[in-house]
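Incident log, support desk, overnight shift.

02:14 A customer reports that sequence design results differ from what the structure should imply. Their input is reproduced verbatim below. On-call engineer (initials T.W.) acknowledged and began investigating.
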């Protein structure tokens, strides 16, 4: 199959494709988006200056703020007549990020999503339960179009209606599940409450993304559902889900679809590219997108790129599981902490659920961190002494691993808000309000 051929190209073949497409994308942006013409003119860059992939370092970055400043349609490179779809991020702060798609963009997106599903071992004949939200969020429709292109039978359930989801999962014999990792946990919890046995389900594989999740969370979901749980990454600015995905064989980093998205990782201080394997901020250039090409877009996501071969035979570069966003990184008394680091610690301890929230505040001049975690239903919540001992143990582990003092508060099951769109809110930073 052609799709698989390109995924096994040699590095040189990939570089050639990427250079051709990179030149095209820079030209499109320069010729058709006034923002880019002005930005490139300021640094004296013309599209014909791009001779090699190395020349990318002379090209200015694009940021989320640039998109906000051009809200809603200022970044479009085509007339509205050629736009067939508009998506937007929920935008909890400031203006939403808006993105448009031409017919070809939708085709390309469907293709990378079909490839993503195939990379998870999903095929024609599978019954795919799609519990990503349908709407402005790209999860629902992105997976949907990919599943149809692949030929799997997609059930467009969207998020919510959890008991019904589970009944359909059982009655329709769903073999694949797509949703956020937190929603997967919620499904597991609800199935348990409904007395639904794992053996009543035919699920084999799940493709989870849209928020950071750790290896510990993967293990939890895999064990409780008896499936392979794989990571899928993307963002609406670039296309939606399908920028990169793990393969079933390797389960060790997400292959970036380099024929459409050119990835770099930069040091957030120097803004220079880091060496492969080193962590930094992911920057992506769209190589084929027509409606809204983005050149060196700073995603804000922290990861590292790996170029060593993967057992699956795909040659495309792999990115590590995203550990969080640059703006999720908390600085607590001078120490850097990502919610995902706390998650890794929590999930190693018996009796806890992966439902937690970090509450950051200030007492006088000092930052304080409270970690609230739900315990599981088996934990005797009236045994105060036992809870205190456990809280102290968790605090000790957090301090050992992250060098940060935390007050740990255990909560009964089901009290932490599960979040909208299936994405959980992990951090409440009260320092920002003051
Ligand atoms: O979350 C697209 C998506 C839908 C991806 C379904 C995967 C599955 P946005 O709402 O624009 O798009 O949010 C994008 O979510 O910059 C990351 O910070 C985060 N994110 C997305 N996927 C992952 C992942 C969709 N696998 C923002 N791991 C991105 C960690 C992720 N964070």
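02:41 Re-run completed on a clean worker. Output:
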């Amino acid at each position: 199959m052609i799709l698989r051929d390109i995924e096994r190209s040699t590095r040189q073949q990939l570089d050639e494709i990427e250079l051709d497409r990179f030149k095209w994308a820079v030209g499109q942006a320069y010729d058709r988006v006034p923002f880019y013409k002005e930005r490139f003119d300021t640094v004296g860059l013309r599209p014909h200056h791009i001779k090699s992939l190395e020349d990318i370092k002379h090209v200015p970055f694009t940021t989320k703020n640039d998109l906000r400043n051009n809200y809603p349609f200022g970044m479009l490179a085509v007339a509205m007549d050629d736009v067939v779809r508009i998506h937007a991020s929920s935008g909890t702060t400031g203006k939403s990020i808006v993105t448009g798609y031409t017919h070809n963009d939708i085709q390309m997106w469907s293709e990378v999503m079909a490839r993503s599903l195939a990379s998870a071992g999903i095929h024609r004949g599978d019954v795919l339960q799609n519990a990503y939200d349908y709407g402005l969020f790209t999860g629902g429709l992105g997976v949907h179009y990919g599943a149809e292109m692949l030929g799997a039978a997609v059930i467009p359930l969207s998020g919510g209606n959890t008991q019904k989801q589970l009944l359909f999962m059982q009655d329709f014999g769903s073999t694949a599940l797509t949703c956020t990792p937190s929603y997967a946990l919620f499904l597991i919890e609800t199935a348990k409450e409904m007395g639904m046995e794992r053996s009543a389900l035919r699920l084999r594989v799940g493709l989870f993304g849209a928020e950071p999740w750790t290896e510990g969370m993967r293990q939890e979901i895999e064990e409780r559902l008896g499936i392979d749980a794989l990571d899928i990454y993307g963002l609406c600015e670039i296309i939606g889900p399908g920028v990169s995905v793990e393969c079933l064989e390797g389960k060790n980093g997400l292959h970036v679809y380099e024929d459409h998205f050119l990835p770099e990782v930069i040091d957030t201080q120097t803004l220079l590219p880091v060496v492969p394997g080193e962590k930094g901020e992911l920057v992506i250039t769209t190589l084929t997108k027509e409606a809204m090409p983005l050149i060196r877009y700073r995603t804000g996501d922290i990861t590292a790129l790996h170029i060593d071969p993967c057992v699956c035979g795909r040659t495309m570069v792999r990115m590590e599981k995203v550990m969080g966003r640059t703006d999720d990184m908390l600085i607590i008394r001078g120490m850097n902490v990502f919610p995902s680091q706390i998650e890794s610690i929590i999930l190693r301890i018996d009796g806890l659920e992966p439902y937690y929230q970090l509450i950051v505040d200030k007492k006088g001049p000092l930052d304080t961190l409270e970690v609230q975690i739900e315990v599981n239903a088996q934990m005797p919540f009236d045994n105060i002494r036992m809870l205190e001992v456990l809280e102290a143990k968790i605090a000790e582990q957090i301090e050992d691993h992250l060098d940060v003092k935390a007050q740990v508060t255990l909560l009964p099951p089901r009290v932490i808000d599960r979040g909208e769109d299936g994405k959980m809110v992990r951090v409440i930073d009260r320092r920002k309000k003051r």
